[in-house]
Design a protein that fits this description.
The complex is a heterodimer. Chain A is an alpha/beta fold. Chain A has one domain: Rossmann fold (3-Layer(aba) Sandwich). Chain A contains ten helices and twelve strands. In chain A, strands 6-7-8-3-9-10-12-11 form an eight-stranded mixed sheet, with helices on both faces. In chain A, strand 1 and strand 2 form a beta hairpin. In chain A, helix 4 packs across helix 5. Chain A starts with a strand and ends in a 5-residue tail after the last strand. Chain B is built from ten helices and twelve strands. Chain B is globular and about 70 Å long. In chain B, strands 6-7-8-3-9-10-12-11 form an eight-stranded mixed sheet, with helices on both faces. In chain B, strands 2-1-4-5 form a four-stranded antiparallel sheet, with helices on one face. By secondary structure, chain B is of the alpha/beta class. Classes of the chains: A alpha/beta, B alpha/beta. At the A-B interface, helix 6, helix 7 and helix 9 of A face helix 6, helix 7, helix 8 and helix 9 of B.
Chain lengths: ~325, ~325
Amino acid sequence: MALLTVQSLTKRFLVRKGFLRKIKGYTHAVENISFSLDSGRTLGLVGESGCGKTTLGRTILRLIEPTSGTIIFDQQNISEMSKSELPNWRKKAQIIFQDPFSSLNPRMRVRDIIGEGIVIHRSCSRSKVLEEVSSLLELVGLESRSMDKFPHQFSGGQRQRIGIARALALNPQMIVADEPVSALDVSVQAQIINLLLDLQQSRKLTYLFISHDLRIVEFVAEQVMVMYLGRVMEMLPAKGLALKACHPYTQALLSAVLTPDEQGNRTKKKRVVLGGEVPNPMSPPSGCVFHPRCPLAAEVCRKEDPVLRNIGQGHSVACHLV
Amino acid sequence: MIDPILEVEGLSISIRLRKRWHRAVDGISFQIQRGEILALVGESGCGKSITALSILKLLPRQFLQIDEGRIQLSGRDLLKLTQREMRKLRGKEIAMIFQEPMTSLNPVFTVGDQIREIIQIHSLARSKAAKDMAIEAMHHVGISAPLERFDHYPHQMSGGMRQRIMIAMALACQPSVLIADEPTTALDVTIQAQILELIVRLTNEHKMGVILITHDLGVVFEVAQHVAVMYAGVIMELAEVNSLFKNPLHPYTQALYRSLPKTEVLRLQTIPGRVPPLDAVPPYCRFYDRCPLAHAQCKVGEPQLREVEPGHFVRCIKV
């Protein structure tokens, strides 16, 4: 039984311009996305900046209101919840933000940052709150006496640990991790990823892991969803992703990954360097949205929008040529 | 052996923290040939960026000062030059690309004007001809429709385009040395691939010497010929790129290498502990506290950088 089911979720942002704030069009941030995620699993979400991965994560949490579509979590319809019911949803699903420098209030002490949610959602005594904060800090590998410090007294990796402790404070079932390691050094990245994996084990967490780095997603996730311009290009199991990926966009992303192999040899495969950039999501290209940058684009790609079709073994692709 | 275009010898830089001076870079030496890319790799705070800034003598004097060392650019010692002489050199003979293409361009001037300014300052051409040269420079870094883009402001361009503008500015006067400080860190992977390809192409075409500062071992592996791995202000390992990746000798390099995500392992290897703070750099090996091979002998004095194989230097007594 899937814990989270998302059905044809769409988010369009209104674009208004000029003195009279006339509607100039819509930014198609998330277009018709469906997937389901089992309890205790990780779904990796990859794509370039502006592809809608962060918007998707936040729309699922209702930090952004969806335009249409349904979100079902544990048999509850999240997309139809009223504003007054939302605090209940916050207890079940939390978020870890990308930038550990701007996502922690510099004027709050660590104990208030982590304890704020506990105070709001549970009526418990001050000493009980501090007790929980200190056990959360220890859980994420920080000393409990650091709760009296301010965020600027910590390094990037330590701040991200505080962000994780904050997300865990309400004991959620699901966490949206929005690029949790991209602002960190490699050696610290590894520590934070290991911490996230340990927490998943011990607390049975379900992750929606957003990243632009295929190496990391392949490592942490069971299932990977590749997005481009608000649409799903390919969805496939993370294991052996490099060999199985068949969408030209996924292949281009893979070839942009620079890693020496085990013996320290340069990879032999020919590099596909994509020309151009992601088009303006206000006026997406006709047909397949990827066709202006696709090295294989054919006539049909310009005219028809490919549908995401299942090609077996949990693998689906939206491409005419596969 | 051909003379190196840039030679840094025994460079030491101090930083002022709470009214006291601390060594942030301690006696580093390296050299670059024409047409070669040298990568400086290390974690944040290891001193790679201030090394680069010191070559251009752009360190803010009240906080950072060069204590000793020589920086030779085709035979001239940059540290002996006056500010006025340095100003003539910057942009013309040594140019720099900064990490943040968003914040290092002036938002109130068009990108074309910013490129033209450099050409005019170094009086390579007058206004009209300078514009043509600027457009040529934009074309050269792969900007389509440079004539129209000339009048665009930085906010009208994407990150990748702005980084191309930065590169066009840096290369407008055909410098012999280019310093690229994390040029692709703020960019998407597909755009990173484009920019790296561009830097490699231009390095070959102009026969520049390039210092590429990065924390990404993948980027190093892809484009550099030589690598210097820095840690807490010193070079721990210096080698030719293939030799370093095939046979990383320093425990720190090995640890960095192992912390890259790989599919076959279930847990990533991490480096325990953290970089020693500036005011508490030990008098022995700086990696001692985090090193898996640490031994009583490692606490006796600071190890020297030695050549263990031809062209492969390591600062570790265990190797």
